[in-house]
Amino acid sequence: MTTTSKQKPVALITGAGRRFGFELAKALLAENYLVLAHYNSSRDGVAELEQLGAIGLQADLTQQNAVELLIENVKTHTDRLDLLVNNASCFFNNEKVNQDRSALAAVFQVHVQAPYLLIHALSDLLASTGNGVVINITDIYTDSPSTDYIAYCAAKAGLANLTQSFAKQLAPEVRVNGIQPGPILFLPEHDSEHRDKVLAETPLKIEGGLDPMIQAVRFLRDNPFVTGEFIKVDGGRALVI
């Protein structure tokens, strides 16, 4: 057991090696958190976080045994958990999951099974702080699913349901909420035509960037009277999809 964990608030972020998870981890390190940075294959980002003081924990969330080992690894590093952010994701369209059943399984394992196991197994550590917080990253398509990503949307809807169920079960010691992102940060493979189309369908007409997501995490972390709720960080896109 590390003594550092008794002196600092502790956060576990899944999918911390890139994009939002990486930037959130850096922000929490700057706030003097002990950050447990989970990753699957994005080792370079986690290596940078480790240089800043994070502890990298590798696990393939599609494998139940790996998730259970991750849970045990978390417990070797800390006896408390202030913040759990279920951020890891896999984004497969219909064609991918129809051709590859392992991809279909992965969508539900990463977005539903792994968060369930983590929240359930770590609930005592979260409750021990008296104000533990879980934040699940869902999607605006939870409420208005895309017909091009049926399995993905269904899995994110499952995560949303888990959010509300655990919010009821774990109250009052632990609060559980979700964030529904929209066009926060385009992927490298998104061409200008795709970007222009998405922004044209977004009322605020801009790519949000990652800072609004980090602000939403801070709000849900710091507001003691919010549980079982979702914040859309999407520039208004959910209004028109």
What do these coordinates show?
This protein has 8 helices and 7 strands, in the order E-H-E-H-E-H-E-H-H-E-H-E-H-H-E. With 241 residues, it is of the alpha/beta class. It has one domain (4-239): Rossmann fold, CATH 3.40.50.720. Strand 2 (34-39), helix 2 and strand 3 (55-58) form a beta-alpha-beta unit. Helix 5 packs parallel to helix 6 (150-170). Residues 1-5 have low confidence and may be disordered. InterPro entries: NAD(P)-bd_dom_sf, Sc_DH/Rdtase_CS, SDR_fam. It comes from Pseudidiomarina terrestris. This is SDR family NAD(P)-dependent oxidoreductase.
Radius of gyration (CA) equals 17 Å
The CATH topology name reads Rossmann fold
| Strand arrangement in the largest pleated sheet | 3-2-1-4-5-6-7
How many beta strands in the DSSP annotation? Answer: 7
- Strand percent estimate: 5-15%
Total domain units: 1
**Average residue-wise pLDDT:** 95
CATH class: Alpha Beta
General form: globular
